[in-house]
């Protein structure tokens, strides 16, 4: 769960902020002055800080200056909350490195919008900006989650097998131990939209299994797949015995959410070339696109990942081939210049 630290000396304002944020699904902690806020930032390691400027002991500017000098804390998005609206105050805060400003009295929707914006910006710009302790904890959580499936039954499924469908209730938790899968939604016009690819080491539908709620996507094999199946009751019992594994599940959800948001934004603003480049990079991140393991997906599936028509994809791949960015052998795609493909994302 995303953690937000609120540093505010006014008890009523602090409680109001904490209530709004908790009801919006955040984990919240409060500090009553700047000194306490600095100490809590160091020990609690929040994902974002909302801080008043006029604080006792250490004011908001001082809090920001102290945190900005600590390598493990300087990456945390910092939002000033203040009744001061003069341009000079805003400029001073921004010059010190504040990410945004919210003035009192604040609107709930504005507050949440600014917080979500800054969290998303932070995820996009520093996807691996985590403290050493966080990384160690996450690695441990991921190892424990994998161990839960150590003795689970493994079955082999053919291509085009539907592992589960939307609105179906989980009966098992899954670990993909070999092969490739896709998570899809059906568009209003009846066309499948591929949200993401899954490769070895993925946990299809793990969030729904953990929450014990119906699936929100369809999951279909793209190749012959080996999948470990753990009955839901055994999975939940294992999670209760190793509660630390929840951190790994939450990180998987956070990563999926960020990638989905990027894809939605890309569909709205990216050029066709950028959309195809994004799809190729996604394939590479799943182990597809090398000479040893080319992209074997059908043009329809690859176009669905891009969010473009199959004919448009075919023309763009032809352009990429003529520019020596890719090779096409027996219909399969091999990326020969990953660096230049990635450059297209920033064009």
Number of E strands: 14
CATH architecture of the largest domain: Sandwich
Mean pLDDT level: 87
Radius of gyration: 23 Å
How many domain units?
A: 3
What does this structure look like?
The protein is an alpha/beta fold and 347 residues long. The chain has 3 domains: 127 residues, Response regulator (Rossmann fold, 3-Layer(aba) Sandwich); 134 residues, Jelly Rolls, CATH 2.60.120; 76 residues, Winged helix-like DNA-binding domain superfamily/Winged helix DNA-binding domain (Arc Repressor Mutant, subunit A, Orthogonal Bundle). 46% of the residues lie in helices and 20% in strands. The chain has a 5-stranded parallel β-sheet with strand order 2-1-3-4-5, with helices on both faces. A 4-stranded antiparallel β-sheet has the order 7-11-9-10. A 3-stranded antiparallel β-sheet has the order 6-12-8. Helix 1 links the parallel strand 1 and strand 2. Helix 6 crosses helix 9, helix 10 packs across helix 13 and helix 11 crosses helix 12. The longest helix is centred in the C-terminal third of the chain and has 25 residues. The chain is globular, with a radius of gyration of 23 Å. The chain starts with a strand and ends with a helix. The mean pLDDT is 87.
Q: Helices, strands, pairings?
A:
Elements: E1 3-7, H1 11-23, E2 27-31, H2 34-44, E3 48-52, H3 60-68, E4 78-82, H4 87-95, E5 100-103, H5 108-125, H6 132-148, E6 153-157, E7 162-164, E8 172-178, E9 181-186, E10 192-198, H7 206-211, E11 218-221, E12 225-231, H8 232-241, H9 245-269, H10 272-285, H11 299-306, H12 310-322, E13 326-329, E14 332-335, H13 338-345
Parallel strand pairs: 1-2, 1-3, 3-4, 4-5
Antiparallel strand pairs: 6-12, 7-11, 8-12, 9-10, 9-11, 13-14
Helix pairs in contact: 2-3, 6-9, 10-11, 10-13, 11-12
């Amino acid at each position: 769960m995303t953690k937000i630290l609120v540093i505010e000396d006014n008890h009523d304002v602090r409680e109001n902020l904490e209530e709004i944020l908790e009801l919006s699904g955040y984990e919240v902690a409060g500090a009553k002055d700047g000194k306490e806020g600095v100490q809590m930032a160091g020990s609690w390691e929040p994902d974002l800080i909302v801080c008043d400027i006029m604080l006792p002991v250490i004011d908001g500017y001082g809090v920001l200056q102290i945190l900005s000098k600590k390598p493990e804390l300087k990456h945390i998005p910092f939002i000033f909350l203040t009744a001061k609206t003069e341009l000079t105050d805003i400029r001073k805060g921004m010059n010190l490195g504040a990410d945004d400003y919210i003035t009192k009295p604040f609107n709930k929707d504005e507050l949440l919008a600014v917080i979500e914006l800054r969290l998303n910006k932070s995820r996009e710009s520093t996807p691996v900006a985590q403290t050493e302790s966080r990384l160690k904890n996450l690695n441990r959580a991921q190892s424990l989650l994998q161990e839960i499936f150590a003795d689970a039954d493994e079955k082999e499924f053919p291509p085009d097998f539907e592992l589960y469908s939307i609105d179906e209730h989980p009966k098992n938790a899954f670990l993909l131990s070999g092969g490739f899968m896709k998570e899809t939604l059906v568009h209003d016009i009846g066309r499948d939209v591929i949200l993401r690819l899954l490769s070895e080491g993925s946990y299809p539908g793990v969030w729904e299994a953990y929450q014990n709620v119906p699936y929100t996507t369809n999951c279909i094999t793209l190749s012959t797949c080996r999948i470990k199946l753990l009955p839901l009751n055994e999975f939940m019992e294992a999670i209760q015995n190793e509660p630390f594994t929840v951190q790994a599940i939450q990180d998987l959800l956070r990563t999926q959410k960020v990638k989905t948001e990027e894809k939605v934004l890309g569909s709205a603003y990216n050029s066709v070339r950028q959309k195809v480049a994004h799809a190729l990079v996604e394939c590479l991140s799943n182990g597809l696109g090398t000479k040893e393991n080319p992209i074997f997906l059908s043009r329809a599936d690859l176009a669905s990942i891009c969010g473009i028509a199959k004919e448009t994809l075919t023309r763009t791949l032809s352009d990429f081939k003529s520019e020596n960015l890719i090779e096409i052998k027996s219909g399969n795609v091999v990326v020969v210049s990953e660096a230049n493909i990635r450059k297209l994302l920033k064009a």
